[in-house]
Amino acid sequence: MRDLNGFAMTRNTILTQKPNNKIHWLAYALAKYLTDDCEGAVNVIDIYLGTLSDSSPDKQRGFESGELALFRNRVLSEIPDNEQKALDHLEECRDVVVDEGSWLMTKATLYLKLGNFEEAKKTCISLFERGLTENYPVHNGYMCSLLEFDRQTCEKFMKLKGTDTVVTVKKLTSEEKEKLLQCYEKEIQPINSRSRAYKGIRLTLLEGDELKAALDEHSRKDLTKGTPSLATDMRSLLLTENGEGSLSKAKDPADVRCHPTFIMLSELADSYIESLTSKGTFPGKYEVEAPSTIVWAWYLRAYLYEFGGEYEKGLEAIQNCIEHTPTLVDLYERKGRLLKLGGDIQTAANCLDTGRELDKQDRYINNKTTKYMLRAGRDNDARETISLFTAHEGNPERNLYDMQCTWYELEIAGCHARKGQWGQSLKKFSKCHGSTFNVLL
Predict the structure, then answer these.
(1) Comparing C-alpha atoms, which of 258, 280, 330, 279 is closest to residue 300?
(2) Is residue 414 assigned to a domain?
(3) Structural domain of residue 408, as residue ranges?
(4) pLDDT tens, 130-154?
(5) How large is the angle between the packed helices 292-307 and 329-341, nearest 10 degrees?
(6) How many domains does the chain have?
């Protein structure tokens, strides 16, 4: 209900009646925090810890005690102008915290807020040495410490989600890119040169011929290994300027087709296909590649056609893949997506179902097929398909509801709505507890 003030009052009443229960203290501290009373939350935690003896488990090194210490530190750091106290507390609780990765990440964030960029950089490098080279928030902290952004900018970049980084959301000068590139090659590459995050960030920093050479090397390795995510990784390079120095990924097919990096990738993919088809080798090489390499080259080209909105050409490329290797499930998923984007959802659902038949133990392709069938209005077929991975006894939809499979509830609700079955649609939507009707769009 989001009645947070009522929640805080209720937890206070419960704590007053049963003060010997640990969970009531922590729940009341959480209620204080949710009502933006950070100082009150810290006081509640301190009072609780003050009631314990030094030999209590909550004062010794352990998972629960460490998480409580990190939570107290988080609340402490959100009090205005309190970063130094939070940093001091972090040092005090080091022997208690088990999750050293979170402890170091918190420390780096506090150093950035205080403007101590040198210590923030050292802490981020320590995190990389602990094996967190695939952790993008650590990369963002490292780049913020190198470029020495102001506090507000650092806080903004440390909140980025997914694979977004400083380089993909902010237009940097050539000097800033060169500085980042040199530091990455000097300090991060020796730690883990095989990190995909490192490789992707390095590509976003390169320009011109250097970028083309790096893309060529990266693409050849992934095509030889048969990496389906190659094209997805490349999409993060298709950046457009939004004004005021901010960047975003190009989404409009017209913008994508005009992007210089996209043109570069398309030319590389075409050269691979031509050389592999005629000679069985990459351009300029003499080693004969495995037969599967041409399949992934076509797959990459189909992906690029999809980015550019050329769905018919994409279907031709993916059909070449299927004719070459008809047992590869990824190909049917890509063809189904191209058909869906082209407006033929019925054929797309049939295509996904064909791919599903190749591997009936793959839950992902089963779920994807179910989703396409619901989009095509075939709710009975979708119910039979999804029931292959539910409990056999009873109604499969009841089992999905018990498992909180919200995506299915939303999709079947949208399916009923598109068929004009408003009562059934409302019933399904109500089960999702206030989920929006955006699925109808």
Answers:
(1) 330
(2) yes
(3) 390-441
(4) 999 999 999 999 999 999 999 999 9
(5) 20
(6) 1
